[in-house]
Every structure is written in C-alpha cells, then in structure tokens.
Amino acid sequence: MNIISIADLKRHELESIIFNTKEIKEKPLRYRNSLDGRILIMLFEKPSLRTRISLESAMLQLGGNSIYIDRRDTHLGRGETIEDTARILSRYGDCIALRVNEHETILEFSENSRVPVINALSSMEHPCQIISDLFTIYEIEGKFKGINLAYIGDGNNVCNSLLLGCAILGVNIRVASPPGYEPDKEIIVRAIKFSRENNSLVEILENPREAVKGANFIYTDVWVSMGDEDEEKERLEAFKEYQINRELLKNADSDCKIMHCLPAHRGLEITDDVIDSENSIVWEQAENKLHAHKAILLKLLNERTMHS
After folding, report:
1. What pLDDT, on a 0 to 100 scale, did the predictor assign at position 303?
2. How far apart are CA 294 and CA 246, in angstroms?
C-alpha cells in the first residue's frame, strides 16, 4: 500500500490512522519498539524542516532508523531514471518517503518500488500534512460530521489534499481563492463526489468573507510556494484581499480556530495578531505531524509485514 494521494485511503482507513494517532500521542511509550530494525529512506528534491524532522523523529521513537537523501546525493537528472532509482532504493529500505517537484515523479517511483511509498509533498498533494491536520480537528472537536472548515488562499497541493480529506470524512469545506488560483479541477470533481457519498458540502468561492461565515476552522497557507518565486509580484497582488486578519475574522464566529501548515509568511497571508492569538492552533498542528507520521508508518509497515 502507498499513500500518494489522501484519496488512496478509504474512509475507514483514514479514520483508523487518525484514531491511532490519538492513541500514539497519549501513550507514546507503548509504541517505542514497534518498528525495531526498520529503515525509512527519505528522498527529498525540495528542502524541508517540519516534514523531515517529524519523519526522522517518528522512526527513531518507534525504534527504527531513517536515511535522508537530497537530490545532490542521487543520479537523478544525471542519467539514472526514476524507475531505476526506485528499483534500487526499495531493496535497501522498508518504506520510502518522497518530497518531489512534480507529482508524476512519485507516480513513476511508486510503480517501480517494492516497498510502500509515502508522498511527503508533491506539486499536486500533501497528504500526510492533511492527515495530521484532520487529527488536530478531531482532537479538538471529537468528531468530523457537522464541522465547517474554510480554506482561504492559494488552491495548491495542501488545499487539494484538504478538499479530498474533508470530503472523505464528511467535513464541510469552503475554499476561497482568487480567479486563476483555484484548486485543481479534477480534485474538485473527486471531492464533490466524496462529499455526496458522505453527506457533506464542498464549495469553491471567490469571496473570502463569505467563505469564513460559520466556520469552526479557518486554514491558510503561503501565497508564494517553493517554485512559484517568479510569480511573486503578481501573486501578492492577486491575494491581497485574502489575508487572515482581524477584519476578515469579523465575518467568522468568535471562537473559530486558526490553522496554518507553516512556514508562515507573517504580514502576508496571516497577521501576527491572528497567528499568535488564543484561537491559533498552528503549534498543535506542527506537533501533531510527529504523531500522525508514526501512525502512517505503522500502518504501512505493519501491513507490509502481514502481506510478506
């Protein structure tokens, strides 16, 4: 089993990972030798702080080990194909996490890997981030049904996975993005399909003030992601009305929680007084990546053991 898209997980599988994350967070010592002798290989084309460290810490705390490889340490781009790299690395480790520029890279890699592959970020999705975020919502609310989440900003990989994850679990989600920066069209179609199966709502809007009405959670991300630096000037202009600030929050419930997957560009997509407010749960989000990564690794590696 791979986790390339969050939609690779059926509803009961996603719920199981989230419920297990709660157990792991509450009783970490119970799991400390669960992956004794296992090796996670991390092949990252893009730099990372939280994702890399939380994966490495997760493996160590579960009794396993990790090996980090960036693009400079491989022959990718210098003659060796993705397929050949996958065939070799999957003989050296028990699981491989990839953080790649293009989504097609991880698809090609997973087709040629003998071991489970985790999408640690691609141009299309960021499933592990959203699994962690959905756990954070569950930790606070104790449920998914009837929860309203508003995502304000760029319809990027985080937004794509958030749409799918919310729809699978029955969370109502509204996305507000400026014209030309909406989520992927195929992702929207899939999310709407899931939402109909789970009696929830998916709405794609342009007006952020409309999107935050009645929201229990408001989520945002950077306006200029890695790889989009050439578009910085036009993006800052396009998104200037999409900042999470006190003025926008006048349209939301007073107790709504603020989410951001970090790193935050303070003063752009979110203001200091909002991200540092008592309603902000961004630090809980960041911590929960560690616990969610443990649950993900345990599911994939334990399933591999059962089927080997």
Report:
1. 78
2. 36
Domains in the chain: how many in total? Answer: 2
Residues 75 and 147 in one domain: no
pTM here?
0.95
Closest CA to 152 of 242, 249, 253: 242
**In this predicted structure, what is the pLDDT of residue 38?**
97
d(CA 213, CA 33): 46
Low-confidence ranges of the chain (pLDDT < 50): none
- Local structure of residue 170 (DSSP, 8 states): T
Residue 95 phi/psi, 5° resolution? -160, 145
Same domain, yes or no, for 268 and 162? yes
**Cα three-residue angle 270-275-277, rounded to 5 degrees:** 135
Residue pLDDT, tens place only, 283-308: 999 999 999 999 999 999 987 665 55
Q: Give a yes or no: residue 47 inside a domain.
A: yes
pLDDT for 5: 98
Nearest-angstrom CA–CA distance, 53 and 40: 13
pLDDT at residue 226, rounded to an integer: 72
- Residue 275 and residue 178 share a domain: yes
